[in-house]
Amino acid sequence: MKDNLLNYMEKRFSQGKYKNQPEYSRSYVTISRQCGCFGNSIAKVLIDKLAQEQNTKNLPWHIINKEVIEEAARELRVEEKQVKEIFDMHQPGVLEDFFSALNPKASISDLKIRKTIKEIIQNFARMGGHIIVGRGGVVITRDIPDGIHIRIEASEDWRIDQVANRLQISYIEARKQVQSIDKKREDFKALFKQSKEEEIKYDMTLNNERINVYEAAELIYKLMKIRNHI
Asked: Which of 188, 7, 186 is nearest to 84 (CA)?
């Protein structure tokens, strides 16, 4: 998986690391979701829909999620599992302390870590043809045109039931997990806001409790067509 990603990134950025010029003039999608909602499943169905309706075999769309972790690990020269942990760390200076403990000889500032993550996500957006699931994508790409930003929500009780059933855990355990993950995701997005008061703007908010995975993918696809993004 890692080798495939590195080859893919090298091909895409062949004209220079993190150039601000897109290789393809295609749009991109970000999906922000509450814990328990089916953001990744919606992205997969949308990918299939695009392949079927738009014949994207030669230039397929890609889902970007853990790829951000893999590429950041390569850039920062640490293990992927260590980068994954930074998405749970949101207080100023914590990232810097974390990486300093891993490698005392390395000087990796909190700003550099955030900058690396930001550059990776922004360039996936600039290249187009990517569905960025989570990872603060909606905030990080706010100034990049031709994006469609989706929010997937549902009532907390419904989401707790989904997590409990999916993981085969108790309702109480699932509630703790849902509330904890929701907070971590919001805190992570806050790292990339221009101010605490900045409002996150979505193009479409969908209630996963009332709209299933296939319906959600269809609605996103139709919005992409209406805006001439495909």
From this structure: 188
